Amino acid sequence: xPTDILDTVRVAVNGVKMERTSEYELDVLxxxxxxxxxxxxxxxxxxxxxxxxxxxxDRIPSSGxxxxxxxxxxxxxxxxxxxxxxxxPLDSHTLLAAYHDAIAYGAAASLLNIQPDQSALVMISxxxxxxxxxxxxxxxxxxxxxxxxxINIYRGRNPSNIGR
Length: 164
Known about the structure:
Helix content is about 30%, strand content about 20%. The protein contains 3 helices and 6 strands, in the order E-E-E-H-E-E-E-H-H. It has helices spanning about 25-30, 100-110, 120-145, and strands spanning about 5-15, 15, 20, 45, 55, 70-75. Helix 2 (about 100-110) runs antiparallel to helix 3 (about 120-145).
């Protein structure tokens, strides 16, 4: 699995979502060595050993179940460390740039909350309001992305249509 994985969200084979389980549950369920079973997998477990992350199936997939077209692994990616002035949060993803201000206000409020005095409490309140405003704005923008219709070009570029 990728090294930047935080956790697995969904695994599917041939469009069918698999059930997440644990190694212990597979051992109990099968009551024998299940690691050599073959066929279309129905269950999986995630081994997030920091040195060797693995996605393990209850059966060894057949050739018809293997490959990127048949096996889907969706996961939560660990964000990169922001270690320099040129670092950009959220993997520099353009659609997520709108969240940058929210991140800054949320972080500022959290830092001020470590040892708040009276003036810090006022700033914390202001930053939390700005944080909420930016997050709400971003959520609304993402909701509206699906509601947009394509631009309809009326009459095109035909010069004879000018002035009509």
